[in-house]
Design a protein that fits this description.
- This protein is about 40% helix and about 20% strand.
- By secondary structure, it is an alpha/beta fold.
- The strands form 3 sheets. Strands 5-8-2-1-11-13-14-12 form an 8-stranded mixed beta sheet, with helices on both faces. Strands 6-7-10-9 form a 4-stranded mixed beta sheet. Strands 3-4 form a two-stranded antiparallel ribbon.
- The radius of gyration is 19 Å and the shape is globular.
- It binds adenosine-5'-diphosphate (ADP) and magnesium ion.
- Magnesium ion (MG) binds next to loops.
Length: about 325
């Protein structure tokens, strides 16, 4: 068998081409129940963390989104861009001030954030998806009234909270078989723009769209019982369990809005929320189409994932594997 990469499919390297035809077929057939289960459903994917700043991982992410779309799933991508905003602020010599982990956003900082998110990060994601066909459409929360925002705290400047979302524009794009890619800038009634945490926006959108699942790509293995111990990943947790972890200080920094977003999404009726390691190439495919039990799954109280996801994973809340 040839060990050359398959033409036109750079992610399939020689090691996978070495698989026997039987093994390759078996892998494909194993995905069948998952593909059937998710066909037609909306899955919101928040793209962030390392995956977004590593070109190779970003290309694998685009392939995953295109594959989801190709098997009848309706993906909606929501992205952050904190590191990219920080990098341009540095290049421009603008100092960032942080209060309780949130960047104080004056008018100049908001301009930079909006330029980076809408003009650069969003465009890069759209173009990497559209290398595989013309499917992705980029939009900002300011477009067609998608995200109505309000100031969180005047001391933080133009840092916004989600006041409401109007998913009509997303639904129209999905009805046209397109893939929406959303930058999380929102606007208030006067048109004033605000920068909003992408985790929060993704949850609000997933709830409003009646999404089946929400996936958060991050830069750690998942939710960790000990943030300094990568082997302490919590594989499954319900809302009561999350409240306890929040109260005892297990969750800090960027995990605070992410965990709150998972709670919001599940409370809004999203079947399950998943925090997965964006450093793993093709983590979205692994999470959706295998029973590997990757990352941390957040379920409603007493809930069993409708798809039985995670069955076979120890249910003691901590899975060190
Ligand atoms: P992103 O939003 O791009 O996924 P963030 O930096 O906002 O990334 O959030 C992820 C970070 O949260 C991790 O890199 C980690 O430093 C921090 N964190 C705090 N507490 C925990 C925890 N209990 N488990 C995992 N990560 C945690
Ligand atoms: Mg974050």
């Amino acid at each position: 068998m040839s060990t050359e990469p398959i033409p036109g499919n750079p992610s399939v390297d020689s090691s996978t081409s070495d698989f026997s035809p039987e093994r390759r077929a078996a892998v494909l057939v194993e995905t069948l129940p998952y593909i059937q289960r998710f066909a037609g459903s909306i899955i919101v994917v928040k793209f962030g963390g390392n995956a977004m700043v590593d070109e190779n991982l970003a290309a694998r992410f685009a392939e995953d989104v295109v594959l989801m779309h190709s098997v009848g799933i309706r993906p909606v991508v929501v992205h952050g861009g904190g590191p990219q905003i920080g990098a341009l602020m540095d290049r421009l010599g603008i100092k960032s001030e942080f209060r309780e982990g949130l960047r104080v956003t004056d008018a100049e900082t908001l301009d930079v954030a909006r330029m980076v998110l809408v003009g650069k990060v969003n465009r890069d994601i759209v173009s990497s998806i559209n290398r595989h066909g013309s499917m992705a459409v980029g939009l900002s929360g300011e477009d067609a009234g998608l995200i109505r925002a309000s100031a969180r705290n005047p001391e933080l400047g133009f840092v916004g909270d989600v006041e409401s979302v109007n998913p009509a524009i997303i639904e129209r794009l999905l009805a046209e078989d397109l893939i929406p890619v959303v930058s999380t800038i929102g606007a208030d009634l006067t048109g004033q723009a605000y920068n909003i945490n992408a985790d929060t926006v993704a949850a609000a959108l997933a709830g409003a769209l009646g999404a089946e699942r929400i996936l958060y790509l991050t830069d750690v293995e998942g939710l960790l019982a000990d943030v300094d111990d990568p082997s302490s990943r919590i594989s499954r947790v319900d809302l009561t369990g999350l409240a306890a972890l929040t109260a005892d200080g297990t969750i800090s920094g960027g995990m605070i809005p992410k965990v709150q977003a998972c709670v919001d999404a599940v409370e809004a009726g999203v079947g399950s929320a998943h925090m997965v390691d964006g450093r793993i190439p093709h983590v979205v495919l692994l999470e959706l189409f295998t029973d590997l039990g990757i990352g941390t799954m957040v379920l409603p109280d007493g809930g069993v994932a409708a798809d039985g996801h995670g069955v076979g994973v120890p249910d003691d809340g901590v899975d060190g594997s």
